[in-house]
Amino acid sequence: MNKIGIVGAGLSGLAIARNIKNAVVFESESRPGGLLRTETIEGYTFDIGGSHIIFSKDNETLFEMLATIGEYVEHRRRTYIFYNNQFIKYPFENGISMLPAEERFQILKDFVENMIREKKEPENLLEWFYYVFGREITDRYLKPYNEKIWKRNLEEISLDWVGGRVPNPPVDDILRSAVGIETEGYTHQLRFFYPLKGGIETLAKSLAENVDVRVGERVNKIEVGEGEVVVETTGGQYEFDKLVYTAPLTHLPKIMDCDEIEGKIRKLDYNSLTVVGLGVKDKVPNFHWLYFPQSDIVFHRIAFLSNYSPYMAPDGCSTIIAEISRRPGERISNVCERVIDNLVDVGFDLNVEVCKAWEWKHAYIVYNHHYREAVEKIRGYLRKKNIVPFGRFGGWEYLNMDAVMAQAKALAARLG
Ligand SMILES: Cc1cc2nc3c(=O)[nH]c(=O)nc-3n(C[C@H](O)[C@H](O)[C@H](O)COP(=O)(O)OP(=O)(O)OC[C@H]3O[C@@H](n4cnc5c(N)ncnc54)[C@H](O)[C@@H]3O)c2cc1C
């Protein structure tokens, strides 16, 4: 049997370890979970890595995740976009039905003209939006929202990002919506699930049961020998046949000799995130989460966690988180005050009892034009050294939880 070590006890490390006998997982933080961690302050429970809901097109994986968390709640999504001082239904192309008739006409006219116009094949994300959705939908929502979350000119984002993730416009939906008929989009996520108690960390906690996780053991050095991988942590030195690496690829030059791929690692781009948690002594409207494309509002999304599960806040109170995408190294001053002020600006004047911010260096992989070549080279190099890159930052891939769970199972079967 192969001796397997795993760097990182986020969802990726945990999901692999629980499918392999005797794997050892090293986690630098004091508890497992990575982005899936939850904290309770004065009775308000916050998912500190941002809003996480459980959904999947793959029923087998979905049922496995639900069986893992035990008690859960099920919802039909109630999600809106703040647009021209009103909340319209998400996604935007389905929210068009809530706009005034003249605006619907402008959007419809442009969409139809765009469909029949001869067009050059798109080469980047901005061109792809124009190609698929037309100017009106792109300029009104897709461009400002995506510029806000990616913090980049959208021409810098490659079509690798689009592959399967941003769906083609449901033509039927846009036409219906434009003539005022209500429709639903992103239907694979319309129904979603959430742990009844304990926030999203419940999933990580359940996965970590019966897994050998060495918390507080940061991996400081990886050395590749003849047929073995030697790992030095803050707690000791270990030898493995194979090492699964789920920490960010950008950390590698600090912990292993990898001159051959350092240039490629420097090409990798990502965004950071600030999550601001608010405990409020008010009942909030019955939304799940809201999107804000406006550049003068600090957050791009807010989520009402106490509408996911009533156990997330004391009776009569509410728990909210605001997500703010940042370029790596960018600082946001007075973030709690700015979030509270902007909430007032968009119509939520709340009695705030608790406010705390959490910073995440790695949150979103940016699919720049170097993405595919750099990632393929780095992955190939590591595999040759018996190091298996995996996960959102270890594999450098925009993975949601269901994809992590499914891929981890397949990988464990190959390794175990
Ligand atoms: C804002 C946001 C919202 C999201 N919402 C959803 C959602 O609604 N639904 C969904 O399905 N998915 C969602 N996701 C995706 C989901 O968070 C990821 O798929 C998942 O958490 C990735 O887990 P991971 O283990 O790959 O990475 P991580 O969670 O980053 O885990 C990596 C672990 O490695 C540890 N580590 C790092 N360096 C070392 C070292 N040197 N030694 C030891 N340990 C180390 C870290 O401490 C961490 O615990 C969301 C992601 C974000 C950012």
The largest sheet has its strands arranged as 7-6-15-16-17-14-18
**Mean pLDDT across all residues, rounded?**
95
The CATH C-level name of the domain at 4-36 and 199-266 and 369-415 is: Alpha Beta
Strand content: 25-35%
Query: Judging from the principal axes of the Cα atoms, what is the shape?
Result: globular
The number of E-state strands comes to: 19
Assign a percent range to the helix content.
25-40%
What is the annotated CATH architecture of the domain at 4-36 and 199-266 and 369-415? 3-Layer(bba) Sandwich
Largest pleated sheet? 7 strands, mixed
What would the CATH topology of the domain at 4-36 and 199-266 and 369-415 be?
Answer: FAD/NAD(P)-binding domain
> What ligand species are in this complex?
flavin-adenine dinucleotide
Task: Kindly name the structural category.
Answer: alpha/beta
The Cα radius of gyration reads 22 Å
Distance between the termini: 7 Å
Tally the helices: what do you get? 12
Regions with little confidence, pLDDT below 50 for 5+ residues = none
